[in-house]
Records
---
Amino acid sequence: MSDNFVLATGVDTLEENENRAFDLNGVSVLICKTVEGIYAVENMCTHQLQPLEGGRIRGCFVFCPLHGQRFDLKDGSPIGALTKKPIRVFPVKIENDDIYVDMSA
């Protein structure tokens, strides 16, 4: 495994459609477990720089808990009128039921 991958948490620590933020190398990274897979994004809405942790997950989208701005977890693109700036996404690897995040992305 590349040195750029950092252990975030175990796969079983999150339920489907749940998210939780972890401090990885000084960056707040939101791990999202969805029906479509596990994704990692920076835990910061680009609308008003508020944490995304606790926002609803629907399919492969996370909604900001403050104003409902929606972001695609696959590529970080925003859907809606509040911001046009995408969120940062990180590659994820699952190994031995642990979630690793590539912090070089």
---
Amino acid sequence: MGKIKTVEYFRVKPRWLMVKITDENGEYGWGEATLEGHDLAVEGCLEEMIVRIVGMEANEIENIWQTFWRHGFYRGGPVFMSALSGIDIALWDLKGKVFKMPVYELLGGKVRSKVQVYCWIGGDRPADVERAAKARVAQGLKHVKMNATEDLNWIDSPSKLDATVERIKEVKALGLDVGLDFHGRLHKGMAKQLAAALEPHRPLFIEEPLLCEHPEAIKQLADRTTIPIAFGERLYTRWDIKRFLEDASVDILQPDIAHAGGISETKRIAQMAEAYDVAIAPHCPLGPVAFAASLHIGLTSPNFTILEMSLGMHYNTEAGDDIDLLTYLKDPEVFAIGEGGFIKAPTKYGLGIDIDEEKVRAIAKDTKPWQCKVFHGPDGSIREW
């Protein structure tokens, strides 16, 4: 395994940022540095990193990770960690290919042979979800996730929560387990009411019931509900999660491998969580490289429970470009959903996927930066996306 020769990045539709690292022997690996709505910032960070990484030993993944973490002086945050994630994932893929083994073997080997997945139903403004849920059943899925509510005011009419309860009843009647994503849209007064209303209907989990910048409120909510509390997509390092593990305020951590320092840091987060009896359900509404990398975390982590999959997700399909999770794969069958909603462990080297580089380069030529959604209340005030 040789020194790093080139690092390239590609902004591609619908909203993903892929990274390719090639060593001096011509071997290469793919990573993903997607940070939804902040492409240009991550690209700028990658430009700074590329200057330092070229010429380093590609085999020394941990040394490279620590170099950027410690010698950069300023640490953490979504932009820096997403750029680092893209590099880290690509290096693991490259190393697996060079040593001719799947990444999960490099991580100590599998603890399971397949990974449970869930997919989305509905969009940012959930309404008719029953039809979408039936389509997921036909795909073989047993678990789905949907947004719990539309955007809400700081304190809003309690009647606006009624539709959430009706939707979960509709979907569960089809035999599906449902995770509900609050998306940080609700503030404390509304989140408490909705959690109480949902409790009799036993959702799989409630995700980001409150924003992680309110740890004291999350702790209060966790102490008053029996529903598992899930969050972590906006936590980027093992240091970010310490408070929540020590508080016993989270039941399911959801690190996003494209935001949380790649395979190296996500694996460390999973191991920390295990020591606190907390499950891991990687957040991944992203592209095929991030999803493949997350599969290897799931395959090697005893406390893994379920993995998000963006197949057919509204963010992929709403632009009308006919681009989805499988678009950039030469062999889409590697992500085939089997009986019970499981995906089998990949068998090829590295991440186990073959990226269609020609298609990546072609689509990258005219892909504009993706913008985050914007919501306003009837009074014109800004609401959480």
---
Amino acid sequence: MGPDQRSSPTAINPGSQSALRELNEERILAMLRSHGTLTQAALARSTGLSTATISNIVKSLVATQRVETAPTTSSGRRAMGVSIIDAADVAVGIDFGRSHVRVVLARAGFHLLGEDHTALPVGHRAEESISIAASMLKKLCANLGVDHTQLLGAGIGIPGPIDHRTMTVIRGAILPEWVGINIESQLQAALSLPVFIDNDANLGALAQVTWGEHQESSNLCFLKIGSGIGAGLVLNGSLYYGSLGITGEIGHSTIFNQGLICRCGNRGCLETVASTGVIIDLLSQSEGTPIGIEAVIERAQSGDSATLRILGDVGAAVGHALANVSNLLSPEVIVIGGPLAPLGELLLEPIRRGLFRHAIPIIGENTVVRMAALGDRAEALGASALVLRQGQPRQI
């Protein structure tokens, strides 16, 4: 082999180092577009690049005003968060609930541009609700100066199990009027956008690891307690869908074998003892007059003994169900969301008691249980994240 055929450092294309740097810059920017603000340590773990390389590239991106940095906390320690600032594309997030619809607009890099929500009648039909959401989106875009051509797509949250093979809502959903309808085609036609449909609990989980304080959690369970009870699971950094796309139906796990018949057809499900509807019914019966969830929260915070007793029973049942999840999957953190979130420790404390009682000790002791910090917009934010994490949207 002659000297000119030998491999040596001087034989490398002098442009290869700059090309490699550009490639690494794009890897970092892609992670920030799809995951929002990340610490430099998290960027190093997710890209496989060294911390020194990450630090140098981030300094360069800051100098060219493509990213910005700001102090943050990670696992209780001070860190520097990195956020993208050069993205113009916009994602839509729409959350359909039992009695509401919420629309948000967010830029890549997870910057909330604006939101709107409106009440819907209980038992609303898909066609009418989709039309209302489309009108809300059009008005929100106009108010924010966002052109329709900037929209990447729309993430859609539905409160019920979704068969991902057909993208239809199945029996047992909070919105029975939506069961069996091809909502994907209806949404695409009404919004003139690619749509990405998911269960609202899944989107709540996605919001926690993108918009929320748990961005570095690889294994997380989000439990939404509302008219129904559902869980979203993030396992090894990704949403878990199973074989059918129907996962996290913890509300239909049996807690009492001789309990009430559930809307799913089984007996003694968690929803029959711990949903917000059950809590309201119990307190309304004791008062002799209907009350709302706001009144439940107010009474609990004022120390009303009957309300606290009911919440204690609810928390114990929820903790029992979560212990089964924890024993099987061992999540790092369990986040509780839904309209009861303002209760904070008044609900978390009995949930933890139920979890510790029924979980393997080492798992119970090492599972963090917290209230969601994103409020009632979590599912809509998760829906926008669903779009941002798709990369290039599919054509419709």
